[in-house]
Amino acid sequence: MIHNSSPTIVVIGCGVIGLSSALSLQEVLRNDKSKSSWQVVIVSKEWPTSIPGAPTHHSIEYSSMWAGAHVRPIPGTTEQLRQEGLWLKQTVSKFNSLLKAGNQIGLALAPAIEVFEAPGNGYKAQTAESFEADSGLKGYRELTAEELPNGTVLGFEYESYCINSPVYCGDLLRKFIIAGGKTINATLRSVDEASIITPNVQFVVNASGIGFNDSKVFPIRGHIVLTNSTCFDKTITRQNMDGTWNFIIPRFFSGGTVIGGTKEPHDWRRQPDSATCHRLITGVQDLKQHVLSNGSPSQPENMSVIQEIVGRRPAREGGLRLEIEFPGNMNSTESKLPVLHAYGAGGRGFEISWGVAESVAELARSLMVKLDQIKGRLARL
Ligand SMILES: Cc1cc2nc3c(=O)[nH]c(=O)nc-3n(C[C@H](O)[C@H](O)[C@H](O)COP(=O)(O)OP(=O)(O)OC[C@H]3O[C@@H](n4cnc5c(N)ncnc54)[C@H](O)[C@@H]3O)c2cc1C
Ligand SMILES: *[C@@H]1O[C@H](CO)[C@@H](O)[C@H](O)[C@H]1NC(C)=O
Ligand SMILES: *[C@@H]1O[C@H](CO)[C@@H](O)[C@H](O)[C@H]1NC(C)=O
Ligand SMILES: *[C@@H]1O[C@H](CO)[C@@H](O)[C@H](O)[C@H]1NC(C)=O
Ligand SMILES: *[C@@H]1O[C@H](CO)[C@@H](O)[C@H](O)[C@H]1NC(C)=O
Ligand SMILES: *[C@@H]1O[C@H](CO)[C@@H](O)[C@H](O)[C@H]1NC(C)=O
Ligand SMILES: *[C@@H]1O[C@H](CO)[C@@H](O)[C@H](O)[C@H]1NC(C)=O
């Protein structure tokens, strides 16, 4: 039931960014007595109901259903990477407290290994101290020459997180609903539509991922393979000289193992291709042999493919758009509403999710102050 009288914040999108933001907004409202009658409504055309391997109708645009996903810090060599690094650190801190609080579904602490054929300077300069200070992740250790897989020249390990993305998003949605959140299943044609989809909307959060038509937004195609393997207890990533990647991400909570993957900007192909699938599977045989020679898996196992997956990462030139857009003159009585944009997370939506959500909450708090002031002024007219 949507309460018609309640002042409402509409969040467009039920991906990891919309969900995390919606939960943070609920907390903002809980902590502000003057907003106790407010509610948050998620409007989306797709919802986290996917069980990979079982029938599903999700589009390849619904990125959060297809993500690996793990947390893998990237050295802050550009402005955008430094901003994402801050969000990642906030997310790591939130993941920690979520796991401590228990009952967390879809999220697991797990060792991570990264190896490189031709590491950039940012990776070469990294130390245990700088890595932990930048990311909040513990246990950083450089691999010895003997531990490095053939062809790689640098490697390290640390304690990270693996996320079974459909399960995790389903859990966030359950938490949102239990906390009083409302949902509307609809395909919006424009953001204007969001402001009238339910009565008394105060402002709109645009977390539509690849969304509708920002010309700066483009897809990065990701081809991964979901297998039935259960022998990995860590996530392993290899960056090759030619720009290709090989990675293994266990999907804890009975989700098999993701073998990846490609990162193909502006590539609109929807179908997986068998050559890539073959390259990915072969690529991890090598990682299994070399990186895991002293630990799991103890036995070579027969791995079968459950599903070949293609997803689109919602990338944006310059990175995620995070700002409030005010329609026309805020002091006029025109009906258009402010929009708080939070889209274009690219390949990092899960690992930066809670940092972005906290920024959304901050912007929302400042926006609500502004809206209160305008209301006060209009009331005096
Ligand atoms: C193969 C692959 C591997 C990845 N691995 C990782 C990883 O290891 N770590 C990591 O952090 N990230 C990873 N990512 C990236 C991650 O999936 C994305 O960054 C993240 O899912 C983006 O979330 P989002 O909420 O912005 O967008 P989405 O998940 O795409 O959600 C957008 C939402 O908006 C809704 N919507 C859009 N348009 C409309 C409309 N017109 N009307 C109504 N609703 C609308 C959609 O239905 C959807 O609910 C990976 C992605 C892929 C494809
Ligand atoms: C290591 O890689 C080189 C070059 O790719 C190859 O010639 C050699 O056979 C490999 N060695 C092993 C042990 O796989
Ligand atoms: C949402 O609505 C669309 C269009 O009416 C429908 O096809 C889809 O099944 C609905 N999704 C859910 C989860 O109800
Ligand atoms: C897309 O952009 C065009 C031109 O900028 C604009 O006229 C149109 O309303 C936009 N459509 C949507 C769905 O936002
Ligand atoms: C909302 O976000 C989408 C990208 O997901 C973008 O195409 C669209 O233009 C945004 N809406 C507005 C009004 O800017
Ligand atoms: C893998 O499958 C082959 C053929 O089906 C079988 O001979 C072999 O024993 C299996 N290996 C394992 C580790 O299960
Ligand atoms: C995966 O599937 C293969 C082929 O069916 C089978 O041999 C193997 O035991 C399965 N692995 C697991 C962990 O179930």
Automatic annotation (TrEMBL):
GO terms for cellular component: cytoplasm. The keyword Oxidoreductase applies. GO terms for biological process: D-amino acid catabolic process. Residues 9-363 form the FAD dependent oxidoreductase domain. Its cofactor is FAD. It comes from the Eukaryota. Keywords: FAD, Flavoprotein, Oxidoreductase. Belongs to the DAMOX/DASOX family. This is FAD dependent oxidoreductase domain-containing protein. It comes from Clonostachys chloroleuca. The lineage of its organism: Eukaryota, Fungi, Dikarya, Ascomycota, Pezizomycotina.
